[in-house]
């Protein structure tokens, strides 16, 4: 992640800054696609009394999250589920103060994302927040090509600094293309993402931070 998505540090910081809760509040936060638990860990650091429900489809990722959150396990409930099955596998009476996600929802097609956000909106308490950190695409082909080249150059520099390896831009482009196909990536434009949030019934949809093809955005119930 330090090579592919170095902005995740900034993005997690934005999530914690934007959430308008007192640090001493007992919050319930659903982390969609919790992965290795990076964002969950940052939220617990900011809100020490938070209760996290960490959801991921991969049991291996849940195990990695447990390892990262080893000293905070009393704050976390782990739940193995796909996004599509989540409404059927979660407690029907669940209610949460916030729903967050990081580099996970871009795997969904538009209709799948809308279905998920309808569910998210239904379990959020009044004035609850949804915040997503994710990758985007742009509708303009020139901008898309420029943003991707800047992304490749950044990966090239970080590979050199962190791994002490030299990779050509063509090698990086090919590796990224393979990674996106394997992961089934379906990134949308920012305007489409905000439209989905609005369609799901949130009273507001806003972008809180953006750099090229990465953004932090969400809405308030």
From TrEMBL:
Highest taxon of source: Bacteria
Single GO MF descriptor: methyltransferase activity
SUPFAM superfamilies: S-adenosyl-L-methionine-dependent methyltransferases (SSF53335)
Methyltransferase domain residues: 25-136
UniProt cross-references to Pfam families, sorted A to Z: Methyltransf_31
One of the GO BP terms on file: methylation
Record PANTHER family: TRANS-ACONITATE 2-METHYLTRANSFERASE-RELATED
Protein name: 16S rRNA (Cytosine(1402)-N(4))-methyltransferase
Organism placement in taxonomy: Bacteria, Pseudomonadati, Planctomycetota, Candidatus Brocadiia, Candidatus Brocadiales
